[in-house]
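Sanity check

After download, print the first record. It should look like this:
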Amino acid sequence: MRSTSPVRVIGAALFVLAGFFATWFASAPADAADTVTAAATPEQVSLVAGGTAAGALTIVNGGAEQVSVDVRPVPSDTSLKVELASRSVVLAVGASGAVEFSVTRTAEGSGQDTSVTFIVGSPRGTTSAVLAVKAAASPVLVETKIDSAVDRINENRPGSASLVIGNPRDSDVEVTSLDVTAPASTSVSVLCPGGTDVRAEGGHTVAKPDCAFGIGARQQLLLPITFTASDLVTPGPRALSIVVHVAGPTGTKASVVAATTFTVDVFGESEILQAVGFPVFLVLPGVLFVLTSFTLIRRCSPWRSTTPVGDQTGGVVGTTAVTGILGVAFSFAIALLYPWLTAEIFPRYRRDYWHAYGFLDFYFVFAYSVLLGVAVWLVACLLFFVNHCRRAALIPQPGDTERVLLRKLGLRGFLGRDARFLRVRAGDDSGVLLAKRGGRVLVAPRIVTEPALTDKSKIEALATSGNTLKLWWALRRQSANDRLRYKAGDIAEVAEMPNSEVTIDRQPVALVEVSSSE
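Expected C-alpha cells:
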C-alpha cells in the first residue's frame, strides 16, 4: 500500500475550506446599509433666530425586497425644532421616496453652527443623513432714531421731532413700553399710536408700559415728540434719550436707545448778548436802579440841588463809566435780594438767576430794580425831612429867638451830656460859642431871665451846671419863662460869622444869667 504525502493532505484540506467559504458568502443576505440609502436636500441651510427652512429627505430602496422604513430626526441643539410630514415610508424594490421636513431655529442658542441627523431604520438595519444648519446673525428687533432739525429751544420757542421705529425683520414685533428721559429744565412729550402721551419733566425718567403697539414686518412708525424749555433754565446743551422695549415673535426681547441733542437758551438773551457784548444780568439790574434812584432824587426830591453821580465829571463818557461801575456793584446786591423778593413778595416762589433763569426774569428784574430805585428815592426824601426836623428841633440856626434857642439846647441835653460854652468876642460885643462849621462859627448872645424869688437860686444853680435839659425844663415850667431876653451889650442875635471876625477867649461862661432885679 502506497503512503500519502503530507503535502497532498494539506492542499486537499485548503481546497475544501475555500469551497466552504465561497458557498457561505454566496448564500448570505445582502447588508441593509447597501440596500437602503438616505440623503437630505438641501444639505445645508442658514437660519437666523426665528427663521425656518424647508427641505426633503430622499430614501432609496436598493434591495431585492419591499421594505418599510422609519425616520427619526435628531437635532444637535435644543434651539432647533424639526417637523416631518411623515415618520414612516414603504418602499418597493428599487423605489425611492421623499419625506418633507421643516427646521426652525427657535432661539439664538449657542450661536454656533449646528446640524440635524435623520436616522432611517428598517428591518435590515439603519442609515442616516445629515442636514447642516449654519447660525446666521439675526437682525435687530427694531431700528430707532430721533429725526429732528431743532438746534435751539427756549420757553417761547418749543421744539418738535419724530421718534422713528423700524422693523427690519420678516415677522411682526411688539413694542411693549417706552422710557422717556427729559433733560434738565425741559419737558418732553411722546405721543403713542394709541393716543397715550408719555410726558417727562426735567431730570426725570418716565416709563409707560401702556404705550404698547405692534409693528408689521419691514414697516416703520413715526411718533411725534415735543420738547419745551421751562421758565427757569441754565442755558447749555442737552441730550434727550428714549428707550424702546420690544419683544419678538419667538419671545426674544430687546431694549433699543434713541437719542438727540439740542441747546436750551433764554428767549432774547442771545440777541442782547450780540448787541451789547456781555451778559445782560451783569449790569441791567444795577443800571436800572442807579438811573431810577438818582433821576428821581435829582428831579423830584428836596435834594434835587445835589449834583447827581456822573454829572459834570467828564461828560457822557464819565457818566457812562461811573454808571456802569455802580451798575455792576448794585447788580450783585440785587442778585442777592432777588431770591428773597420773588419768594416773599411776588410771584411767591423762589427764583434765582445765578442758577437758572428765563425770559420772565427780565420782567421781574426790571420791575424790582425800578421799585428799589423808587424805594431809595423815598428813603432819601424821608431822610431829608428827618434831617430838616432834626435841624429845626436840635440845631441852633441864625435868627433863633431866646425860647427857640433854649428849647433846641435843652432837647440836645437828652444825650445826657452837660453843655459848656466859651466866651467869644466879635468886635466890642460879647457872646457864647455854640458850634464850629468849617471856617465859620455859630455864636449867640447870653440869655437873661427874671425868675421869681423862690426859683432864683434853683435857676442860678442850673445855669452854672451846664445841664441844658433841666434848665430848659425849669424855665419852661416857671412863670419867668415869659420874661426871657437876650443880654444887652452882647451880640444882637444868633449869628454865623467867619472865624476871622470872632475871637474865642476860651473862658467858660453860662448861657443863662439871672437878672438881679425882680
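If your output differs, re-run the checksum step. Summary of this record's structure: The two ends are 215 Å apart (CA to CA).
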